[in-house]
Amino acid sequence: MNVNTEPSKPLMPNSLLPDYDLIIFDCDGTLVNSHDMNHSIMAEIANQYGGLSYSLESVEKEYLGIDYAKFFKMVSAKENIDIPDDAANQCVAMVYERIPTMMKKIDGTYEALERLAPYYKLNVASNANLKIVQDSLRATGLDQFFDLDKIMAGRAMATPKPAPDLFLAAAQNMNVAPQKCLVIEDSPTGVQAGVAAGMEVWGFTGAAREPELTSKALKSAGVSRVFSSFIHIADGLRD
User: How far is CA 159 from CA 162, 167, 201, in A?
Assistant: First the structure.
């Protein structure tokens, strides 16, 4: 891990830092803007098996934060159609192909992480495939702020979000107690997982199509604060 130890702006004096040792980020829709790519692929594959008319917008609205395998099970039951067990693997293969050209970092993430890295341990916990998360961070240049061998991804766990297991494992990997962790999440599913893990959870709406609705959903799921930009998250750690 090659973390820049000189922040672009001083965050605050060490004596005034909030009582967090570790910040755990979701990946999709939080660090990287992959929702359009992921949801369009999910819709494309679902449509080819069921003659459906799913769009990336409809998938995002109803299935935000749901992993590929669970998505296809839910669609299969809802639409009463057969979707093969390897549909999730088809999603993964298509994502690998598109990451180098389609993956973008969320505005302000690099600058905010640069400010946070000298003061906090940083990790990632995502429902996505581990290699996809790692490749996404590399493609956007955000990998330098994380130890890629310590991040947690859903395919490595039997119980993805909304279960707390991913966040608890991410904290354990960094040798930090759950009550010393701050989680940054963009989906109610992830928020539920962070709350269940006994961690402070802040919501992020910077990549949401409907920020006001997303903010309400995140608050209902249990976040203590909601932010529309990453710079505001970094600033929020001064309050």
Answer: 8, 11, 19
**pTM, entire model:** 0.80
User: Other CB atoms closer than 10 Å to residue 210's CB: what's the count?
Assistant: 12
- What is the biggest distance separating any 2 CA atoms in the chain, rounded to whole angstroms? 60
* pLDDT confidence tier of residue 67, bands split at 50, 70 and 90: confident
- Strands lying side by side in the sheet with 225-227: 152-153, 121-126, 22-25, 181-185, 200-204, 225-227
Q: How far apart are CA 214 and CA 53, in angstroms?
A: 24
Per-residue pLDDT tens digits for 138-176: 999 999 999 999 999 976 677 889 999 999 999 999 999
Torsion-angle region of 222 (φ positive above 0: left; ψ -120 to 50: alpha; else: beta): left
